[in-house]
Amino acid sequence: MSCAVQRTKAPSEVELKAALGKSAGLWAAIVEAVGRAFPPLELEWRPSKLEFGRMCLLRQKDRTLVYLMPMAGQLLVGVVLGQRAYELAMDSTLPEAIKKMLSDARPYAEGRGIRFTAKSAKDVASVALLVKLKTAPK
Q: Which of 1, 23, 100, 113 is buried deepest, with most CB atoms within 10 A?
């Protein structure tokens, strides 16, 4: 059985901005913050069952750092943390709401996954911190 990765065509800038609406600036800020901290950053588009039909994985080499999902004028962010990164996150300055999502998330072999809507620059900083914790050396 083949486990080929299914990629999809990236949306045009106009299409992406239309889907994100007022959240387009947050998208750009997250991509820039993660790209600055983890070059070279690759944006990989994959099919999604969400209404936009695609999601973007921000990747460095073979590692997915964060998932960005455009949704009807909003930006949904997804991240999966392994056990060590989870422990670092719980001891970090992340907002209590994100810590609660992490503690409530069911642990799987890949780690604990959460999704939240990015609404402000504070959320951009939280995404950057989550990625930093996820990639912290052991």
A: 23
Measured CA to CA, the distance from residue 103 to residue 44 in angstroms comes to 28
State how far the Cα of 66 lies from the Cα of 59, in Å rounded to an integer. Answer: 7
Q: Where are the domains of the chain?
A: 13-134
* Matching residue, tokens 């070059």: 39
Query: Cβ distance 58 to 65 under 8 Å?
Result: yes
Q: Are 50 and 85 in contact (CB under 8 A)?
A: no
**Res. 2 pLDDT band, cuts 50 70 90:** very low
User: How is domain 13-134 classified at the architecture level of CATH?
Assistant: Alpha-Beta Complex (3.90)
Beta bridge partners of 117: 76
Least Cα distance to 122 among 130, 113, 114, 111 occurs for 130
Q: Which of 80, 79, 56, 59 is nearest to 68 (CA)?
A: 56
Tens digits of per-residue pLDDT, 80-136?
999 999 999 999 999 999 999 999 999 998 899 999 999 999 999 999 999 999 999
Q: Which helix (H) or strand (E) holds 86?
A: helix 83-90
